[in-house]
Design brief:
Number of strands: 7
Strand content: 5-15%
CATH class: Alpha Beta
Structural class: alpha/beta
Order of helices and strands: EHEHEHEHEHEHHHE
Number of helices: 8
Largest sheet: 7 strands, parallel
Distance between the termini: 27 Å
CATH architecture: 3-Layer(aba) Sandwich
Length: 262
């Protein structure tokens, strides 16, 4: 198989770093025109210049804060009104702050709901007509293995990720007759800034050395290493391709075997 995304327009959210950036680079390397979306316009301007464009692609940016869904909605509506359409959408946003669910405040739940579910919903509403008209649609949500087994110390994240997974499955059923697929990638512990923050926060809370917490987390992974962002991007590339046309409504863990369920 040779994955070819030439002629496809892909919108990749949260793409200035980590998993989102790796996906944007991979899609561009496979020939897609990539729109990088994040709240940091200056950083987006710098990052988009580094995307591969050997196949004559035209990459651009969209600036919006995912904690403000109406801003996201306005950004995608303005893009679509300019007669631009997308065949691929990757919903991806930084996770909520860690902490036990019992101590979570109302604003934490509402903030996570806005950033992860409502903003994703507005983006799907914005791109789905273009997908139908072009006869090609791939919606990929970057969530978490917590939708299978909740993770300790990530109360708000566990709650919201589960909601997003159920929303995604429902959307997959509704869009399947149109040939549009909706799938979730569930990254395990991945070498990103967020993982570093989680490890450092856990070490501080438990009064342990950072390296000790790092090793403790590694011991839970059968492959005994953290994922590389590029490994999540490879999975996204397959799901975005023509080869995944009959795969929809599923969760794909990319976690080195950590999740203790099928």
């Amino acid at each position: 198989m040779k994955i070819d995304l030439k002629g496809k327009n892909a919108l990749v959210c949260g793409s200035t770093k980590g998993i989102g950036l790796a996906i944007a680079k991979q899609f561009a390397a496979l020939g897609a025109n990539v729109t990088m979306m994040s709240r940091n316009g200056a950083l987006l301007e710098r990052m988009v210049r580094d995307l591969p464009c050997e196949d004559g692609q035209k990459h651009d940016i969209l600036v919006a804060d995912f904690s403000k869904p109406e801003q996201v909605k306005q950004a995608i509506e303005e893009k679509i009104q300019a007669h631009y359409s997308y065949q691929i959408l990757v919903n991806n946003s930084g996770g909520p702050s860690p902490g036990p669910v019992l101590n979570a405040k109302e604003e934490e739940f509402l903030g996570a709901f806005n950033a992860h579910l409502l903003s994703s919903h507005f983006l799907v509403q914005g791109v789905v007509n273009g997908m139908k008209q072009s006869g090609y649609g791939r919606i990929i949500n970057i969530i978490s293995t917590s939708v299978k087994i909740p993770l300790k110390g990530l109360g708000v994240s566990n709650t919201i990720r589960g909601a997003v997974a159920s929303w995604s499955k429902t959307m997959a059923t509704e869009l399947a007759p149109m040939g549009i697929t909706v799938n979730n990638i569930l990254p395990g512990a991945t070498s990103t800034d967020r993982l570093k923050q989680i490890i450092e926060g856990k070490a501080l809370k438990q009064n342990e050395e950072v390296e000790a917490v790092n090793q403790e987390m590694l011991s839970e992974i059968p492959m005994n290493r953290f994922a590389k962002p590029e490994e999540i991007a490879f999975t996204a590339a397959f799901l975005a391709s023509e080869y995944a046309a009959y795969i929809t409504g599923i969760n794909v863990p990319v976690d080195g075997g950590r999740t203790g369920s099928l």
